[in-house]
Amino acid sequence: MKRNVGKVVEYLPFLGIVAVICTTSWLAGRSSLAGRPSLVRTPVRR
Amino acid sequence: MSQTDVRMDGSAETRADREATPGSAGGRRERLVTHRERADSYYGRPVLNEPTWKDHDIAAYLFLGGLAGASSTLAAAAELTGRPGLARASKVGALGALGGSLYCLIHDLGRPERFLNMLRVFKVTSPMSVGTWILTGYGPQAGAAAATDMTGLFPGLGRAATVGAGLAGTALATYTAALISDTAVPVWHEAYREMPFLFAGSAAASAGGLGMLAAPLAEAAPARRAALLGTAVECVAASRMERRLGPVGEPLRRSRLLRLGEALSLAGALAGVTVARRSRVAAMAAGAALLAGSACTRFGIFHAGMESANDPKYTVQPQRRRLAKKRAERELA
Amino acid sequence: MAFDLDEHLNGNRVGFFTDTSICIGCKACEVACKEWNHVPEDGLDFTGMSYDNTVGLSADTWRHVAFVEQRTPMGRQEPGVGDMDFRWLMSSDVCKHCTHAACLDVCPTGSLFRTEYGTVVVQEDVCNGCGYCVPACPFGVIGKRETTGVAAKCTMCYDRLPAGEEPACAKTCPTDSIQFGDLDELRERADRRLRQVQEAGMTSARLYGRDPDDGVGGMGAFFLLLDEPEVYGLPPDPVVTTRDLPSMWRHVGMAAAGLLAGIAVTAWRRR
């Protein structure tokens, strides 16, 4: 049991890094929409 | 230079102990020589020493380096085609992945405080040395690209850094294939022809996934197409690799992580070009699946290599076949 | 591989010739090596692998004596264990100090270097413990030492050579199974010895690593073996991994160009 916990802990930095990347990237993608509300909800359809 | 010589009297005629001939004397009773099975190894011990690399550092780095590099390339393409939202999301993602890469690389060193020692030489024979210099060239540009985009300062410099990081990013995303192939680990070494394409495909798929996850729907078309193209290349390269390697490819064909990676990537890529074009939630789910799929692929490749290093048959049997082939060719000639 | 190490060193290249046919498995080489080089203790385990409890070469084992037990006759010897043929093969393994050394090629810090004697040595104060040399070695020789975090392997007693002393293992070997000297001279000696052993009835005897045309360009430490190399835990046809590196870089270049072109194409269309 303890060994399994230790193994999971080893992967936490990696999972944390991926979570941080996704969050910051998502926030950056959202921030680019500021001032262009037409893009926020519905995609442009042609 | 002194040399080994056990003769005490210095006489050349005296037969030295080292001239003893084993098995030359004695009265062996005649016995039937029973059929001998050819030993494959020494007590089943691996021939190679197990790589000291840990999957949560090096397999993670293979993934993060690919994500960073391909994201920068995607960001440059998005910026040059007038998609600022996708460009910004990809630049910020690339910078984060670069930070993660550096953390993993330095964390894996036995003496992390000496990581700068890698900048004392440039060796084209060492993919790790080449990679260090690729990171040194890529890192500041990726940083500048993200920083100028977020702050709006120095747009000219930002444009140059974006393009520079986009070009250097292709090297960062693919050199890691040479990094692991340039070892004696049977699966990694033998797969060196397909590995760069597999890694390039996997990197494009993950960058596309991140773009889908983070960029506005209206701008994410390149990310969706990159994910689809990347996944296709990755799957083709992987199946070619598995077939061409023959018996050495066994650990690859057995790998459940690789199968899971392919399934996640395919699901994400197909969802990307269908439902994720309209729904933001579906796009985020497809992007996450693509990221997870790429990570599974890298971990799968890493573990298949470790498995082949730890079993002597993957080292010994191909070499025996190579020797037999050489002998046969010599006899024909 | 136009670089000819033997020519470059002007005949100054030294090496080991390990004649396993006269190895008695006393392990004096292992002990002498540990003592002289201050190689730390690395586990006192009972493996059950004949008399071998050191298992293999690693960061903390620079000489390793292998014990192979076979139900095979040893020439005309009567083993005296009932109605059974039996022989014991013993062999003292060591770093091969390859002409084309993969560990040296891939080292990203330049910590591994080629000495003026043609040997390959780790500079402990430069190594940052990246571990690349470990999977690069086709013989499984070099390792990363847990206690210091840096790579370690046989130096062929680099510190003894300038004083005109032979390496500790060769000095202590009581049967001269480990012979140290000028590599060219050792190769001639090995050829003579091989003929002698084969004429005495051991037709399975062979030299391993003597041939400068093999996959690692010939080994600075080579062996006379009485059976296939894999029986002793040695790879039968080792090849320096960097031999394929030019092709690897070409494939990487193609993949990088493909990645650039692919992403450019995906962004080309407006929608």
Automatic annotation (TrEMBL), chain B:
It comes from the Bacteria. PANTHER family: PROTEIN NRFD. Residues 1-20 have a biased composition (Basic and acidic residues). Keywords: Cell membrane, Membrane, Transmembrane, Transmembrane helix. It is a multi-pass membrane protein. It comes from Nonomuraea aridisoli. Residues 1-32, 310-333 are annotated as: Disordered. GO terms for cellular component: plasma membrane. The keyword Membrane applies. It holds the Pfam family NrfD. It is found in: Cell membrane. This is Polysulfide reductase. InterPro entries: Electron_transfer_protein (IPR052049), NrfD-like (IPR005614). Belongs to the NrfD family. Coiled coil: none annotated.
TrEMBL record, chain C:
It comes from the Bacteria. Binds 4 [4Fe-4S] clusters per subunit. Residues 14-44, 86-117, 118-147 form the 4Fe-4S ferredoxin-type domain. Its cofactor is [4Fe-4S] cluster. It holds the Pfam family Fer4_4. One of its GO terms (cellular component) is cell envelope. Signal peptide: none annotated. Keywords: 4Fe-4S, Iron, Iron-sulfur, Metal-binding, Repeat. One of its GO terms (biological process) is formate oxidation. [4Fe-4S] cluster 1 binds at residues 23, 26, 29, 173. [4Fe-4S] cluster 3 binds at residues 95, 98, 103, 137. PROSITE patterns: 4FE4S_FER_1, 4FE4S_FER_2. This is 4Fe-4S ferredoxin. The lineage of its organism: Bacteria, Bacillati, Actinomycetota, Actinomycetes, Streptosporangiales.
